[in-house]
Structure formats: structure tokens, C-alpha cells
């Protein structure tokens, strides 16, 4: 059984598709599955934002095949690790958790880099064009830490 990781943001078109593609590129596919979902419903079935597709492509990662989907309470049992991009995502996801085990699976992704600081990955959707570059670099850095940790834990 592969170890399953879910990346969660609001729209599932900017940050979490990038996080999915970046982490997947750092892990062997036969052992790890990485997916993403959104707490909002606007972009169900949509491909990622073209600005996320472009910054990923520039870094030799393809995310254009991904389709937006809504986070569901069934995801707590379906996934081993659930990484959320910001504090609002954290509240939205934790509200749906029914057990302590479900709650323990949910982590703010940047806490892997800056433990307990509860720093957000900023939402680049309405921001400046270089927001996507900034978000890509943050996610690349934290996904290195996560990949190292997962590889050590699940040998
Ligand atoms: P994401 O960004 O949560 O990183 O995918 C957003 C994309 C779309 C919207 C909000 C955030 N929206 O309101 O449509």
C-alpha cells in the first residue's frame, strides 16, 4: 500500500496543485501517492491556474493534467498526511475532523520548515505575477524537508 499525501488549499487551482506536483517529483511513485483538493467548490473539475502551470513547467514539472476537487471528510481515512497551505484552510479542514487521529493528520505545510510558527503560504490568486514564483520556491523548499522525512520514515 502506498503512503498517501493530500495537499489542500482554498481553490485547488494555485497552491495545492503546485505542492502536489513538487512533492510527487521528489518521491518514488511506487511508494507514495500525492493528491490535492480544495476547501472551496468553485473550481471542481478545472485544470490548475495557467500561472501555476507555467511556473511548474519552468521548473520541469507538469501539473496541467490535474483536476480540481473538493476536500471531503472521507479524505481523513483515505490519506496518511494532509498538508494545508494556510490557517484558514486549517480551520476549514479541522472542523470536519471527527477523531483525534483525523486531526493529527492535518498540518500547516510551512510548520515543517518553521515549526509551530503557523506561517501561511500566501494565496497568489489575486496577487502580483511574481507571487507564483515566490509560492513555488516556498513549496519547493518545504517539500524537500517533507520528502526527506517521509523517505526516512517509510523505508
Ligand atoms: P488557491 O487560490 O487556494 O491557491 O487555489 C485560489 C484560487 C481561486 C480562488 C481562491 C483562491 N477563488 O476564489 O476562486
UniProtKB/TrEMBL annotation:
SMART domains: LMWPc. GO terms for molecular function: protein tyrosine phosphatase activity. It is an enzyme of class 3 (hydrolase). Coiled coil: none annotated. It comes from the Bacteria. Its EC number is 3.1.3.48. InterPro entries: LMW_PTPase, Ptyr_pPase, Ptyr_pPase_sf, Tyr_phospatase_low_mol_wt. The active site is at residues 9, 15, 123. Keywords: Hydrolase, Protein phosphatase. Residues 3-153 form the Phosphotyrosine protein phosphatase I domain. Belongs to the low molecular weight phosphotyrosine protein phosphatase family. This is protein-tyrosine-phosphatase.
